Amino acid sequence: MAGLTWRFPGKPPRGVQPEMLPRLLAGLDRVRSEYAQAQQLAQRLSYAQPPAYDEVTAQITRSIAQRAQGGENSLFDTAEGVIKWVDDFKAAVQQAITDTQRVEEANRMGRS
């Protein structure tokens, strides 16, 4: 059975056997959930108030807020990028499951 195979440049192909695909989907769901929580944390950090109002503390708090949700390379955007990657990979896994089921069904029909 085909399963799901991918290749990184300069590396041998990697793959997942068809019977492991549902387990892979569950793992991807857990990863996605963790990164969604990271996005929520980044959102909360962007509204953090300094514990003191001296200039150094205020500047550090602004820096934390900027790093949390300030655009490219921020915690929020990084989490968003990983979530998109996970969603795309989940779609590929789901397609592999569908393809495997289709092949198995065709094989069963061919044996009948």
Question: What does this protein look like?
Answer:
- The chain is mostly helical and 112 residues long.
- The protein contains 3 helices and 2 strands, in the order E-E-H-H-H.
- Strands 1-2 form a two-stranded antiparallel sheet.
- It is elongated and about 80 Å long.
- The model has no long low-confidence stretch (mean pLDDT 88).
Quick rundown:
This protein has 112 residues and is mainly alpha-helical. The protein has helices at 21-45, 55-69, 75-111, and strands spanning 4-6, 14-16.
CATH topology: Helix Hairpins
How many DSSP E strands? 2
Provide the low-confidence segments as ranges: none
Question: What's the CATH first level?
Answer: Mainly Alpha
Terminus-to-terminus distance: 19 Å
Which labels suit this protein?
112 residues; mainly alpha; Helix Hairpins; two-stranded antiparallel sheet
